[in-house]
Design brief:
single chain, Mannose-Binding Protein A, Chain A, 18 helices, 28% helix, 18% strand
């Protein structure tokens, strides 16, 4: 038996070695590219290099070849890689005098430095290597996973095989928890010295109960766990939205390639259980709910344990999410089980306050959840009056549970994952003490209401939208427009009330109270006044879309339109063109670049203002200009919010208005 064990282990190692890995190359691997978010239509589309560790020339040639590449040639044009080399100097990884192996010129061993000076050098010198980077771009419908681009990482006691595309190393469908019995808490997965594929997304939680998968995009792979910590990248841990009933970490709108590549961060997206399968709580003493939140924490634990193998720094994790994902971030800020496991948090369009949004930020007790939905679920499944309701429910097909009219989607006070009915902004020891970025789109609430019918009054429409009609008594705050389109007038006012009541008020209060009470060391608030609505989700269409004109066939974002819920997602992930969305005007691309640069700056530094040295080294001219335009003044005319009213707030508030964005210094 002992002999068979060793034979099996040898076989695994042999198989693993057939796929290139940083360990087998004995070199770190980094992708450096001038990424302007235009992908294969960019003037920089052909740029990009692979950076390897110092080695002699002969080994450099062989190592590039083993990656399906060759030494980079000066004939490709130094301007294509100039910023890449400047960035290495900015990072402190290399000095200005560092030379790099490139393709020999007239059969003479040749090197290049950060200024583009070529010099012949002895082939025996150990120098860092510049290989070509010819792996193709991935798209939402195409990815080239042939063996030429495959790359293996030894992590979590597994050989995990992903692949390289033009922008990043991609590892899709990595298991973070093993198959889990229904309404049991997920447990961290540990590999068993086997080969696993991370070439395609794993099943989602809408498709299967075994859906505990995450995805990693990274610009850097270390050769071993002992690589210097200074080389590790900050990690952005994305939690998807979808009302706790839909969505997945494999939504291509949130593909992490551009975020990882342009921002120089490691991006992780996750699945977690949804709906009744993820959030059912019963008053039986054992079915305590919050299984989806627990899954998120299990995934976070996996990342903290293993992300170093993918080039990420486990001590610099920023959790971020939108809608229910933002509600998840809020819950993780409150959860003692997540305390100390992340270094920053971003809440995009967190719901709370009035109407539909209430339960995203205020949590039921288990008894309250039973009254709201638990009893209905048991009645509909004939599981009332039995000795063990949860065993009765487990005996039913998953499709029966997910097909019920009653859906448990509520976070509850279970005593372990959530101990209080809401985020405690009074006592610092009750909430994670990390920098916070939080904000909304200008008209977030426009997606949370219907559209009035002809002859409907604003009072009845407000009441039907679970909004209080009493707010109309203060016409200065919510005046009703008077145009020829009466239904649009009613919708307009109701959308403003819903935006304030469901989003803006609670998010501003969170930022203000959290800073004033010393909960968060810094708070950064933003508001989008440019948006691009998702293709597959546009409530009350076309009010969330920029008006189409003959001059702007894809919409004129400089005209008035509703900036709705989810309208910032293309910008945050830098995926407008990747998703086939045309640029509507000359500002969409620089705005997208700027937004992505703000988000990744927060992950790198805890501040959304990108460092000028970083921008210069990377050649991000559009963002540099925007930061210079922003200056230090609070000169924008913002609705409701201004720095004189909120003078006690922290150093920076981020405003995004019109065709541009601003940083407003409120000191």
């Amino acid at each position: 038996m002992l002999l068979k064990f060793f034979s099996f282990t040898y076989l695994l190692v042999t198989i693993a070695s057939a796929v290139i890995s940083p360990g087998s190359l004995n070199s770190d691997l980094a992708i450096l590219i001038q990424n302007d978010l235009q992908e294969n239509v960019s003037p920089w589309a052909g740029s990009g290099i692979l950076l390897l560790d110092p080695m002699p020339l002969k080994r450099a040639i062989q190592t590039c070849q083993s990656l399906g590449e060759r030494l980079w040639s000066i004939e490709a044009g130094f301007s294509d890689i100039e910023n890449d080399l400047k960035y290495l100097v900015y990072q402190g990884d290399k000095n200005k005098r560092q030379r790099y192996w490139i393709a020999s010129i007239h059969s003479t061993p040749s090197t290049i430095d950060v200024n583009g000076r070529v010099k012949k050098t002895s082939s025996d010198e150990n120098l860092p290597v510049l290989c070509t980077q010819t792996a193709p771009y991935s798209t939402p419908t195409f990815q080239d996973i042939n063996s030429s681009w495959q790359i293996a990482v030894r992590s979590n006691n597994e050989y995990i095989t992903g692949f390289r595309d033009h922008l990043s190393f991609r590892f899709l469908g990595i298991r973070y928890a093993g198959p889990t019995e229904r309404w049991k808490y997920s447990q961290l997965h540990k590999g068993s010295n086997t080969m696993v594929s991370a070439l395609n997304y794993g099943s989602t939680c809408l498709e299967s109960e075994d859906c505990f998968f995450l995805n990693v995009w990274t610009p850097y792979l270390p050769r071993s766990q002992h690589s210097p910590k200074r080389k590790l990248k900050p990690v952005m841990f994305w939690i998807h939205g979808g009302a706790f009933t839909s969505g997945s970490g494999s939504d291509t709108l949130m593909d992490g390639s551009n975020l990882a590549s342009r921002g120089d961060v490691v991006v992780v997206t996750i699945n977690y259980r949804l709906g009744t399968l993820g959030f059912l709580a019963l008053d039986d003493g054992e079915t305590n709910g919050n299984y989806g939140i627990a899954d998120q924490i299990t995934a976070l634990n996996w990342v903290r344990r293993n992300i170093r193998d993918f080039g990420g720094d486990p001590d610099r994790i920023t959790i971020f999410g939108q809608s229910a994902g933002a509600g998840s971030v809020r819950a993780l800020l409150a959860s003692p089980q997540a305390r100390g496991k992340f270094a920053g948090a971003i809440m995009q369009s967190n719901l709370g306050g009035l109407g539909y949004g209430t339960t995203y930020s205020k949590y039921y007790t288990i008894a309250e959840e039973m009254e709201v939905v638990g009893k209905d679920i048991l009645t509909l499944t004939n599981c009332t009056g039995v000795s063990s309701p949860v065993k009765c429910l487990r005996a039913l097909p998953a499709a029966t549970i997910t097909g019920l009219d009653a859906v448990a989607r509520y976070l509850v006070v279970d005593g372990k994952y959530l101990e209080t009915s809401q985020l405690d902004l009074t006592y610092p020891e009750k909430t994670a003490n990390v920098p916070l970025m939080i904000g909304t789109t200008r008209d977030d609430g426009a997606a949370m209401i219907g559209y009035p019918t002809a002859n409907e009054t604003i009072q009845t429409f407000l009441n039907g939208s679970e909004m209080p009609s009493s707010v109309l008594s203060n016409s200065k705050l919510f005046p009703v427009p008077s145009t020829l389109n009466k239904t649009l007038d009613i919708f307009n006012t109701t959308a403003h009330i819903a935006t304030d009541g469901i989003f803006r008020c609670i998010d501003q209060a969170t930022g203000y109270s959290g800073f004033e009470n010393g909960i968060f060391p810094e708070v950064f608030f933003y508001e989008f006044n440019r948006s691009y609505q998702m293709l597959d989700w546009s409530p009350n269409a076309p009010v969330c879309d920029a008006p189409i004109t003959s001059e702007y066939p894809h919409g004129d974002p400089n005209q008035e339109y509703f900036k709705c819920h989810s309208g910032e997602l293309y910008y945050v992930f830098g995926n407008l063109l990747r998703q086939g969305r045309p640029l509507r005007d000359g500002f969409d691309l620089p705005f997208e670049q700027y937004v992505l640069d703000l988000w990744t700056s927060f992950a790198r530094t805890g501040r959304p203002t990108p460092d000028s040295g970083f921008l210069e080294a990377r050649g991000y001219a559009n963002t540099t200009r925007q930061v210079e335009l922003a200056g230090n003044g609070c000169h924008l005319d913002m609705e409701i919010i201004d720095c004189t009213v909120y003078s006690g707030l922290p150093k920076w508030w981020i405003w995004m208005k019109g065709s541009s964005a601003r940083l407003c210094n409120c000191l």
